[in-house]
Structure formats: C-alpha cells, structure tokens
Design brief:
D-Maltodextrin-Binding Protein, domain 2, single chain, Fructose-1,6-Bisphosphatase, Chain A, domain 1, binds D-MYO-inositol-1-phosphate, 8-stranded mixed β-sheet, alpha+beta, binds calcium ion
Length: about 270
C-alpha cells in the first residue's frame, strides 16, 4: 500500500468522526421506527450534524478551500485552491427505515489551471459506518479498501454480471427511461440490485462486488468520489452516450472495460 497521504488522512479522520455519530444515531432510528411521529425529523437532524462535523473538520485542516455541500450548498474558498464535494449521508432513505446501508462521501476537486471553473477529482473517500469500511482513491495512486488494492471484477459475460442501479422515485427521475433500460439489460444479466446509496454502488463496483451500475439524475456529491474510486480500480465510467467526463452526475454507466461496452450497447439501443 502507498503511504497514506496527509490529505487522505484528513478526509478519513473527518469521515470517521461524522460516521461514529451517524452510527450512534442509526441505533436510535431503529427504535423510532415504531413511534407515532416516526424518525424523519431525527434523521434530518442527524444528516445536518454529520455535515457540520465534516465541514468543521475539513475547514480546520484546509482553511482556504471551498465546499459543495449537499445540505449547505456551495461555499466559495480561494479560487486557486481545490474544493470539497461532500454528501454527509448517502442512502438517507435506508437510514430512515433502519436499513444499515449508507455512507459518507468526500471528494477533492481541483480548480482549472488559470481559474474559471473546476477540473478533475483527485482524491476520494467513501466511508460506510456500519461495516467500518473506508474506500479511498487518489488520482494515479490506485483505489483501496483500507490497505487492500481495489480492482473491478474481471467478469466479461453479461450472463455472469450482477448489475446495480438506482430506480427513480417520487418526484425524482424518469421512470420511462429507466424502464426501457431495465427491459434491455435485465433479461441479459445474472441479477439487478437497487441498494439505495449511489456512492456505495460505485465503491462496491470498484471492489468487484457489482459488475456494472447505471443511474441518472444523480448529483455531484453522489458520484464525485465514487467515479474516481471506480476509475482508479481499473473501471470505466461514462454517461449514457458513452462519453467520459470528470464527474458524471446526470447519467452514469460504470463497469469494467468489456462489460461497459456490452452494457452500453444494450442501454443505447433501448433509448434509440
Ligand atoms: C440518494 C442515493 C440513492 C440515489 C438517489 C440519491 P441521498 O442520495 O444515492 O441511491 O438513487 O438518487 O439522491 O438522498 O440518500 O443522499
Ligand atoms: Ca446522495
Ligand atoms: Ca445525502
């Protein structure tokens, strides 16, 4: 394993601190399921506390960097410095329903040289508090689960592929489009999974647990860290047209090289 950089240490420390609190709150949420009021207010507070913890920790470590926070929005920093892209709780619906599958996602995005916009994501941490797993990557230094190197799966047959997706839900996403893609891919693969946390769909793909993933309507905080982790694990990430961009929030199709082209053929064919 390469020596952990100071940056990854900062990110992991922040994620663990926020994650410890989320883990405790998750215990409480399980009790609140049976209360008449339900856990919704409690969960939105847990989400805010996690974001505040991450913000405080990351700001203390890099005082002049800006933020893109899911809850707090964009906070400008020094335009010549990187910025943090943070989802403090990815998998909120799972958390709310007492399902132990959620994560904290933190990415570092570089400014465009010479100013005027944002460039590549160069560092990523996705921390899953319940399993205590830290998926991380740095550009050109590989993707890792703790000190073990991550590699996307080597499966090349659709008939063996386990594919994750995000299904549209109330007020979110295009059901018609998703159904067409599902009808094209579903019958060809070994299984489709909807786990409910996009950052973990990507991290698990990087770990070879899933062989492919597609979803549309995501945001930068859902995907920025996961896309770097997948690429550094040797995977391929594109939009639905097959184009590769630094962050794919609107549409994501990710897989190992050979499955990516097979899945893309099915997906593109279904939308024609
Ligand atoms: C959601 C999760 C989910 C995806 C949704 C996201 P949140 O993020 O990543 O898997 O399907 O589109 O909004 O709201 O739990 O942070
Ligand atoms: Ca999210
Ligand atoms: Ca969230």
């Amino acid at each position: 394993m390469p020596a952990l950089s100071g940056l990854i240490r900062v990110m992991e420390r922040a994620a663990r601190k926020a994650g410890n609190r989320l883990r405790r709150d998750f215990g409480e949420v399980q009790h609140l399921q049976v209360s008449r009021k339900g856990p919704a207010d409690f969960v939105s507070k847990a989400d805010q506390i996690a974001e505040r913890t991450l913000y405080d920790e990351l700001l203390a470590a890099r005082p002049d960097w800006g933020f893109v926070l899911e809850e707090g929005g964009t906070i400008e920093g020094d335009p010549d410095k990187p910025r943090w892209i943070v989802d403090p709780l990815d998998g909120t619906s799972n958390f709310l329903h007492g399902i132990p599958h959620f994560a904290i996602s933190i990415a570092v995005q570089e400014p465009k040289p010479g100013g005027g916009g944002w460039d590549d994501v160069t560092a990523a941490v996705i921390y899953q508090p319940i399993t205590d797993e830290t998926f991380w990557a740095e550009k050109t230094r590989g993707a890792w689960l703790h000190d073990g190197r991550l590699r996307v799966s080597a499966r090349s047959r659709l008939s063996e592929a386990l594919v994750a997706t995000g299904i549209p839900f109330m007020g979110h996403g295009d059901f018609g489009e998703w159904a067409k893609i599902f009808a094209a891919i579903g019958p060809q693969v070994a299984g489709i999974r909807r786990y409910g946390a996009a950052s973990l769909d990507l991290a698990w793909l990087a770990a070879g647990r899933f062989d492919g993933f597609w979803e549309s309507g995501l945001k930068d905080w859902d995907t920025a860290a996961g896309c770097l982790i997948v690429r550094e694990a040797g995977g391929f990430v594109s939009d639905f047209r097959g184009r590769s961009n630094p962050i794919h929030s609107a549409q994501i199709l990710a897989a190992n090289d050979s499955l990516h082209s097979r899945l893309h053929k099915l997906l593109a064919g279904s939308l024609r």
